[in-house]
Amino acid sequence: MESDVQPAVRSNHVRIFDTTLRDGEQSPGASLNSAEKLEIARHLASLGVDIIEAGFPAASPDDLMAVRRIAEEVGKADGPIICGLARCVKNDIDKCWEAVQYAAKPRIHTFISTSDIHLKYQFNMTREQALQRARDMVRHARSLCADVEFSTMDAGRSEWAYVAQVCGVAIEEGATTINVPDTVGYMMPDEYGRMMAWVIENTPGGKNPNVIWSVHCHNDLGLATANTLAGINAGARQAEVTINGIGERAGNTALEEVVMAINTRRDFHKLETGIDTKQISRISRLVANYTGISIQPNKAIVGANAFAHEAGIHQDGQLKNRETYEIMTPESVGLSDSKLVLGKHSGRHAVKARLRDLGYPLADAELDEVFKRFKEVADKKKHITDADLQAIVSDQMQGPAEFYKLRGIQVTCGQLDMPTATLKMEGPDGKLYIEAAVGVGPVDAVYTAIDRIVKVPNKLLEFAVHAITEGVDAQGEVTVRICTQDGEYQTFGGHGSDPDIIVASGKAYLAALNRMLAAVGTADISPEGERAAVHLPGAD
Ligand code: KIV
Ligand code: ZN
Asked: Predicted confidence band at 491 (pLDDT cuts at 50, 70, 90)?
């Protein structure tokens, strides 16, 4: 199957197809509500993605409604294509169309597996049957929608000639975007590049200039970005990616990595995307906060350490000339190197202006909330940096609907073995609740006191804390993930920041509980509900 084929001559524009809201949402624990999906979709449109895969409408009526809302509100004529996923099943395709038809530029994305292992064990189909199904379903999708994308799932472990045959049939039936996924992250970059080139060359109609080839890679071997770039350099002109690389198992290809690799090495790739890279940090933080999936500090482009220089020799070089150790600037992804530091004497105008420069043009009412919080933090922390400001905005503007509100935390802890928390909270009924609890550590005591008030059975899956800025007065940022205990194990994330990490921990847990309440409804709360196993690595 080896070949030396050269990629067909193509435009140098790579379409960015964002699937954060579909494949990304399939990450363990990343359940987003419809308002959060809409907010992320708005930011994706502003970021400049070409296509938003908004969900899998046949999965549930809620998913259908979420895709439909995005189609209606974000899928404007000057906005991105809004796409929904559908198996090669008539009902899936009909449901998909029901949701995406409201967009100015709707797309149906339908897929079938081409690997023998999937066909035999998952679909119980022969190759001939799958080929016929692809033909029938692409034809059906085209009868509804002018823009149809077709994917050969598990192409990475499929016979290349069969992939080309199925793609040829999809093109014949009118699909204009053909996606060749490495569904299980099995391929090597060189191999994936050769496969893309071979399939493009050998698919009947594959070199038709109206056909856009697409790459979709998973990161099981840590090669998703490398494979995506190899596929693009072999002729693909659409990359399927997610913000922060979230997705099934080890995730999907990270949008920010592909885009910055294309930008930073324009000399090598000679390609471009339509992404406004200065918005990358902001949307990365938004997705992390909403999904509760925190970003590893050394994650390329968006990790907390991505632009930090620790070693003396590096710092020395940096100070003499930034380019000694910096291949791209923090500003290019929206991190500011502003030396303008705000403090408790800064006025509303200064805060407003700084926020606007950081990409948060807040309305007056929103600014009121943020400014109030800014003053509280500035009372405790001398210098308020851009990172602090962003954390404040995330906390105030990007939290879930608050059924329960934290009104005060008092903790005593030390070495007397009785960490105790006293908590004041306002309930959905407007009443004030005060509870105290003892725990194995201060965070455990706070969480136990919260549980006594909120009474939602749940299990804490993950607790992570990190400092936003340097110094002992740094704000702590806490992310937690919890799951229901009703047998479905739905997962919810929460996020909180504060100069006091115990308060940040309380906020994060309450945010996750509020999200759970919004999804499962208060009716499911048992008065006896208790949090199960408490495991807070490193927190107490
Ligand atoms: O990984 C995959 O194969 C997919 C398809 C459904 C496109 O996500
Ligand atoms: Zn996938």
From this structure: confident
**What's the 93 CA to ligand 1 centre distance in angstroms?**
16
Q: Is the Cβ–Cβ distance between 134 and 112 less than 8 Å? A: yes
Q: Ligand 1: which atom is nearest the Cα of residue 23?
A: 8
First to last CA, the chain: 57
| Percent of the chain whose pLDDT exceeds 90 | 61
Q: Residue 475 carries which side chain, given as an amino acid letter?
A: Q
Pocket-forming residues, ligand 1, beta carbon under 6 Å: 23, 111, 151, 153, 179, 181, 183, 216, 218
Q: What is the CA radius of gyration of the chain?
A: 25
Cβ neighbours, 10 Å, residue 189: 18
Give a three-class secondary structure readout of 140-197. HHHHHCCCEEEEEECHHHCCHHHHHHHHHHHHHCCCCEEEEEECCCCCCHHHHHHHHH
Q: 127-144 and 160-172 are packed helices; what angle lies between their axes, rounded to 10 degrees? A: 30
What's the CATH code, domain 15-291? 3.20.20.70
Instruction: Report whether 88 contacts 52 (CB < 8 A).
Output: no
Report the topology of domain 405-535: Double Stranded RNA Binding Domain (3.30.160)
Residue ranges with strand state E in 4-159 = 15-18, 51-55, 81-87, 106-113, 148-153
Q: Rounded distance, CA 54 to CA 107, Å?
A: 10
Task: Please identify which residue in the block is written with the tokens 């994650």.
Answer: 299
pLDDT at 468: 73
What are φ and ψ of residue 209, in 5° steps?
-60, -15
Question: 38-42, 254-258, 467-471, 474-478 — which is least confidently predicted?
Answer: 467-471
Whole-number Å distance between alpha carbons of 252 and 230: 15
Domain boundaries, given as residue ranges, for the chain: 15-291, 306-333, 336-397, 405-535
Q: Calculate how far, in angstroms, residue 455's C-alpha sits from the geometric centre of ligand 2.
A: 37
Q: Could you give the 3-state DSSP secondary structure of residue 344?
A: coil
Residue ID of nearest Cα to ligand 1 atom 8: 23
Predicted confidence band at 402 (pLDDT cuts at 50, 70, 90)?
confident
Listed residue (386, 385, 387, 351) closest to 369, CA to CA? 351
> Which atom of ligand 1 has the smallest separation from the CA of 252?
1
Q: Which two tokens stand for residue 271?
A: 């390609």
pLDDT, one tens digit per residue, over 315-374 is 666 677 777 778 999 999 998 765 567 888 888 988 998 888 877 888 898 999 899 989
* Residue 104, amino acid: A
What pLDDT, on the 0 to 100 scale, is given for residue 7?
Answer: 46
- Give the length of the chain: 540
- Report yes or no: 237 and 50 within 8 Å, Cβ to Cβ: no
Give the atom of ligand 1 at the shortest distance from the alpha carbon of 85: 6
Q: Which of 90, 44, 140, 14 shows the shortest CA–CA distance to 53?
A: 44
CA-to-CA separations, 309 to 203, 244, 385, 435, in angstroms, rounded? 48, 22, 18, 45
Ligand nearest to the CA of 153: 1
pLDDT beyond 70 at 503: yes
Q: pTM of the full predicted structure?
A: 0.82
